[in-house]
Amino acid sequence: MPLQDNQGNHFRGQVVSVAEDAIIVDLNHPMAGQPLHFKGTILNVRPATPEELSHGHAHGPDGHHGH
Ligand SMILES: [Zn+2]
C-alpha cells in the first residue's frame, strides 16, 4: 500500500499480516535483498579541497554545501 512519512516522502509498504490489534507492514524496498548492478562513468578527477578533507566527503555542483 502507498504510504507517506511526516516529511512528505512517498514510499510503499507490503502488508505482511493483519491481527486483531496489530498490522505488520514490511517497509523494505521491493529490491531489498536483490543483487543490484550499477554502471557509471567517471566525468572528472581532481584533488580534494581542504574543506572536503575536513568534512570527509566531496562537495561540488552535484555535492552539497552549507555545513
Ligand atoms: Zn560537507
Descriptors:
mainly beta; 67 residues; elongated; single chain; 1 helix; two-stranded antiparallel ribbon
Structure description:
The protein is mainly beta. 9% of the residues lie in helices and 22% in strands. The protein has one helix at 50-55, and strands spanning 2-4, 10-12, 14-18, 23-26. The strands form 2 sheets. A two-stranded antiparallel sheet has the order 1-2. The protein has a two-stranded antiparallel sheet with strand order 3-4. 0% of the residues are buried. The mean pLDDT is 87. It binds zinc ion. The site of zinc ion (ZN) has 4 residues, from loops.
Short structural description:
This protein is 9% helix and 22% strand. It has one helix at residues 50-55, and strands spanning 2-4, 10-12, 14-18, 23-26.
Helix fraction by DSSP (H/I, runs of at least 4)? under 10%
- Order of strands in the sheet with the most strands? 1-2
Total strands: the figure is: 4
| SSE-based structural type | mainly beta
Order of helices and strands: EEEEH
Q: How far is it from the N-terminal to the C-terminal residue, by CA?
A: 37 Å
Shape label: elongated
- What integer value in Å does the Rg equal? 20 Å
Low-confidence stretches: none
Portion in strands:
15-25%
Number of helices: 1
Cofactors, ions, other ligands = zinc ion
Largest sheet: 2 strands, antiparallel
Mean pLDDT: 87
